[in-house]
Fold each of these.
Amino acid sequence: MSKPRTIVCALLVGAVSSTSLAALAGEGDDSQRERHRRHHHHQRMLQEFDADNDGSLSDAERASARQAMEARHAEIVAQFDADGDGELSRDERRAAHEARRAEGKGKDKGNGEKRRRHHHHLQMLEKFDADGDGELTGAEREAAHEAMQAHRGKLREHHERLIQRFDTNQDGELTGDERQAANEAMKERSHEHRARILERFDADSNGDLDEGERRAAHEAMRAHRQGMRNLRKFDTDNDRVLSAEESIAALEAVASGDSSGDINGDGVTNADDAALVTSIIDKPAPERKERQARPRRR
């Protein structure tokens, strides 16, 4: 037996005979959320204080913005500083926040729709404005359209999986109780996912991920998702589960050094790909029995 074949067999020992291809949900990128938050705050400041509409705040406009914000802060403190100490405690800040939320809900829905569309437009520009000119050209619009179609397809697949798993009365829809059961299951899965992430990447065991640990987790999950996508070509019966034969085919592709064995997508077929395949096929498939027990909907 050749050495590569020996490696394949050794890696396969202990692997489950079939493997779920449902990708792990990645944690959000906090740095990206922070960039979005700053960007929207900057846009609001420009909209309110950029008097000459030149796309930036001059020193005078900044001073005006600062005075307005200080005045607003003083007004909030005067309204919600229940103990009169000149500062807002946690409870007082919470009361102010709830009041602002209630006020926001009472505003014209048209303004909310306008903000939603503006936010969506900014997201489209960030993702698809390849030349950075602030507009979407024909090719960029086509790329955005294709991406949105693919996203809608994933949403439909997700909905179908929920129906298949939680539609206990087989009416093709989720009742309130069935939807609640689905939500509880997803919450439990989210908690389990977080626990696994902490167990694997919380190096200082403080119960949270710092920037370095979060980055390591993000990179590992990126490689995992890439591996899940690349493994789909070995799912020859398209049942979203790797059988024992399909798993062997994937490992043999890695061992052969063929480009199809580049599971993690780094351009090289090596032991890292074998380790990734093994880590994926060695994970349990908790939904497999339930999926097999219930017939596919036509």
Amino acid sequence: MKHSRQTFFFSPQIFGILLLVSFFVALIFAVLLGSENLRFSNLSRTEERILFDVRIPRVLLGAVVGASLAISGAGLQALLRNPLAEPYLLGVSSGAALGTAISFVVSVDLELIRPIFAFAGASLATFAVYQMAKSKAGMSVERLALSGIVVTTMLSSIIVLLTTLLDSTRLRSFTFWLLGDLSQGTKVGLYVVSFAALLGLFVMVSQARALNLMMIGERDAFDFGVEVNRVKFLVFITSSALVGVSVSASGSIGYVGLVVPHLVRLSVGSDNRYVLPFSMLAGAVFVVVADTIARVAIAPRELPVGAITAIIGAPMFIYLLKRT
């Protein structure tokens, strides 16, 4: 990963304040805007139900999903020393999608069981990638990335086969979910993702110094006393778990782990003591704003939030690809 100090940086304090202000502003507008615009006072009984039972849980779910995806991307990019690294490269979202596809096929109660199926699929994909990437010489980043590509390709093929077993109604619901859909999230999903996000932040930030050294090179980091294999394991497992839980609650929302960490590094530099927590906050803002656009663009109908993040993220991916 290339680093340069020729770009303009905010001070971490100023950037943190800007992110906090942006976060609360985004939450307020997201809660008020939608197919039916709301206000904070003189709400009818119906509007109160929309606000407290639908709008607020959905906005909070979008925030914690965005935070989880962004910090996962930031950690993996630092670990792999590649600005193009994304959690989805490692097959975890495909595993979660496969678990969800199975739940659709067997027609279980999606309200309660789908997150369990999706998380189980993500866990199996994580285990498969980790086992394939291990060798007697350790776990190289190249072997890890290649294992992720193989697992992703295989699971995606199985998902395509399973969709042929769905009727038209379930196929439409599954397809919309697969593109990223926060409308099907549950309060249980919100609690699980929130817990995972807080735990993931703690683990990632605890490895910030080690990741800073590993960005220079694994051999140099080892000479400075970093337990390289332990850091790889922690970051890989934590990122995989965060992505798996997020996908189980909201579907596949791509490019968050690519775009957000890059913009944060352009703003405050490459010190992971700042990049990791700031990426988490910026990811929350990014997904909340994207979901708001998805809800109001063609109201009363909705767009998949994953489509909005892809429209923003694809040009960024091309830009990074040319720079790398």
